[in-house]
Amino acid sequence: MSKFRRDAMLLAVYLAQFEATVEAASAPAASVTSLTVDQIEEWRLDYITVLGLVDVITYDDNDIQVLGLLQRRYGFPSG
Predict the structure, then answer these.
(1) CA 14-12-51 angle, 5° bins
(2) Strands, DSSP E only, in the chain?
(3) How far apart are alpha carbons 64 and 78 in whole angstroms?
(4) Of all helices (H) and strands (E), which one includes residue 79?
């Protein structure tokens, strides 16, 4: 397994733990993360992007840049 795919999988697993519903944003006490509606939408898009990167067979420089950006956004070291 490539480092790229492994890093994408780790980030996907991390993002999968969050409850990403609008209802959770409107009732912060019920949500572990207390994300706002905008943050939930950003998370959903990032999660979809990372899942796509996990399935990439051949990745290019753009894929590497996107993964690095998302890793930094969520506090993962990128390399």
Answers:
(1) 165
(2) none
(3) 10
(4) none
What digits encode the pLDDT tens for the residues 18-51? 765 555 555 555 555 566 778 888 888 999 999 9
Residues in the chain: 79
> Among all chains, which residue has been given the structure tokens 């990372």?
50
Residue type at position 61: D
Closest residue by Cα to residue 49 from 67, 76, 37: 67
Q: How many CB atoms lie within 10 A of CB 67?
A: 23
The 3-state DSSP composition of the chain as helix, strand, coil percent (nearest 5) reads 65, 0, 35
